[in-house]
Amino acid sequence: PTQWKQSSTIIIPKKGDREDLKNYRPIALLPTIYKLFTKVLVNRMARQLDEQQPREQAGFRSGFSTIDHFHVINQILERTRECKIPLCMVFVDYEKAFDSMEINAAINALVRQNIPKKYIRTLLNINTDCSTSIRLFNNNIAIPINRGVRQGDTISPKLFTAALEDVFRTLGWENRGIMVDGELLTHLRFADDIVLFAYDVKTVAEMLKELNEASTRVGLRINRAKTQAMKNANVLVKPSS
Prior knowledge:
The protein has about 240 residues and is an alpha+beta fold.
């Protein structure tokens, strides 16, 4: 139905200066019947979608939480400190991740992850020719939605993580990362929050560059101001010549 393609957007303030538009989060108010419909879709696809997600992704998955990743990071920090192993980490932040991702990237990811075609056709239909309205100065202004997934839609988190998984599958990181319990660990993620691991600055910088290039292809932009790097005392940094 056409009504399902229309929403009203409200702006929720986040932390920081309220005079800065970057510190506000848009939330789409969608028809209740539409959200019930997409919830049914999520329930039907959840098992298949979760099977396509690696253990590194803990966001929006039953049985996973940030506590798991905090525990892993804490163990890595303790072990590298005790054994004097070098460790570099980069905490990656995407700029307006849900608003920037190309919807076609999510649809293509679902195709490659073998989601049934009937669900993909439905998702493509309900995410095509969408619009939202914002009330300004007692006037409703209609705005076409050309990219991003709608925040407030029950299916948006699954679409986002499917597209992000597609990004990581393009990265040739088989020989990157750090050794944890006999296996290489390149990163951890919770939805769009990512931390990269490497033994040296050069490698982790290359990983960040490669991730940025792959992310750009699906519309995602890394926020340089909020992306932070850290290293322990065991990392050797070559003096500048």
